[in-house]
Design brief:
The complex is a heterodimer of chains A (313) and B (281).
Chain A (H helix, E strand, L loop, with lengths): L5 E3 H15 L3 E5 L3 H4 L2 H6 L4 E3 L4 H13 L3 E7 H7 L1 H9 L6 E5 L17 H6 L5 E3 L4 H13 L4 E4 L4 E3 L14 E4 L4 E5 L3 H14 L4 E5 L2 E3 L3 H11 L2 E8 L4 H12 L4 E6 L9 H7 L4 H12 L2
Chain B lengths: L2 H25 L5 H5 L1 H11 L14 E4 L5 H11 L38 H15 L6 E6 L6 H12 L5 E7 L2 E2 L2 E2 H5 L4 H7 L3 E6 L3 H13 L5 E6 L22 H20 L1
Parallel strand pairs in B: 1-2, 2-3, 3-7, 6-7
Antiparallel strand pairs in B: 4-5
The chains are: A alpha/beta (313), B alpha/beta (281).
Amino acid sequence: MADVKKIATREGYGQALVELGQAHENIVVLDADLAGATKTGTFKKAFPDRHLNFGIAEGNMMSAAAGLAATGMVPFASSFAMFATGRAFEQIRNSIAYPRLNVKVCASHGGISVGEDGASHQCCEDYALMRSLPGMVVMSPADNVECIAMVKAAYEYVGPVYIRTGRSAVPVFHGEDFKFQIGKGEVVREGSDIAIIANGLMVYEAMKAGEALAEQGINALIVNMATIKPLDEELVLEAARKCGKVITCEEHSVIGGLGEAVCSLLSEKLPTPVKRIGMNDEFGRSGPAAELLQHYGLCAENIVKVTKDFLGK
Amino acid sequence: MTELEKKELQIMACKVRMGIIDSTNAAKCGHPGGSLSAAEMFTYLYQKELNVDPANPQWADRDRFVLSKGHTAPGLYAALAHRGFFPVEDLLTLRKIDSYLQGHPNMTMVPGVDMSTGSLGQGISCAVGMALGLRFQGKNARVYSLLGDGEIQEGQVWEACMSASHYGLDNLCIIIDNNGLQIDGNIRDVMSPYPIADKLIAFGFHTIAIDGHDFDQIEAAFAEAKTVKGKPTAIVMNTVKGKGVSFMENNAGWHGKATNPAEYEIASAELKAALAELEGM
């Protein structure tokens, strides 16, 4: 594939916040001593009075975000995925999701591509945790353009939302005219031999795999499933019906994330063989992001291999 | 306040206590002990202190109250009902499957409830967020939050205190119900949070100690809180858990259980006698 520019999705988060901040006075951004890393620092520079640092106290930040939302503000609460959804899980459940308050939990540093910080910071459980909460929208963008559109859509949506962004720079493949809709998947490649449903940085890996497979006569249908919940059931069923076999790809545990959401749907409505690519119930380790993604099979080469094995080719 | 006003408040506190006993008795479960210890506080908040409108519970400029010790919902519900947010008879539906009066407060179901609470330590953080939100919007409304003395064992409470002080939230007033008991016994024995006032002072609060069953002291504390600028206020109120029902007073066993029929008769008779005495005075 042609060389494309690479930007981390967390950059898009910071940019979208500034654009939203210019348009809407009710936006307030919360962070827990990670404003530089989550990119809310970009918003802080533009609107210092509307950026609230809560220090290293994620639980308090999430409940305070709920209180802000209860007065009509639209808080975007940020931390790393591990601490936002792990440390503060119960605050998100009881202070935000249960009263269905209009809080946007936007976490960076999701998945294994956190890299050298190692397993303590590589959150591969956030989709599972957030998906389990009634009424929570769960999303992750595939590139910077999608991230900006997604954050803006999250503002327009009334209710609790979780967005995961990544630390590492990833290829930007969406054009500036890209339109995003919560709950709608995007077909990024047409095909009928195998359906590959991916999200986050695995979408571009799937697209690379799609090209390699095409050279070998296998035409993959590739879907960017940026919204994990509510799942675009119609598109999953259509893809399964068309291809007969499905592979899911995510930078997340195979337990509780996109793969399991797809399996749950298909097993009830259209039993279809599925292979899940993700973290196989194990913790990560330190290392450069690119090497880790290779090591754990979260890459185009492995998608090609799994596809060929699956199709018996 | 005049003696007449005080007596009216005492009568109302007695009715709130009746609501607590009647509702938990009807539910056959619930938390009477910590509801009774805060009966005067619930009464004063909803009869005198809070600028709220029962006809318009979502009024944007209203004062907010967050019951951080959410398990004492029976006390809050009784005070809300007597302030006119919903019928007093509905208190008897507490915890029933078709009732809007959930075991712990739910802001999406109960008129007048400003925040869903129940998981200890979270309500005070929500109150901090509300105080920030009201300040952002230039509103003069104030935020009040009632915490248990056992609840302050939660680390989140101190995260919240740190942030309330850091952001200079003088529109926030927290109240600690220091009845000295939690489920497993005396708070000193379980995990001592003492000295409470000293800790709050160290966290940057203007701190006022009162007798939580004395309306004059409650009134004076809230008046003082409104004069404090640049920092939040904490009222530490000394109370008796189970206050007003002889066999419940200072007994941790009544933290989270309701009366049986015989106990209910005694409790109800005591409260009726107390009410008759106040009304006859």
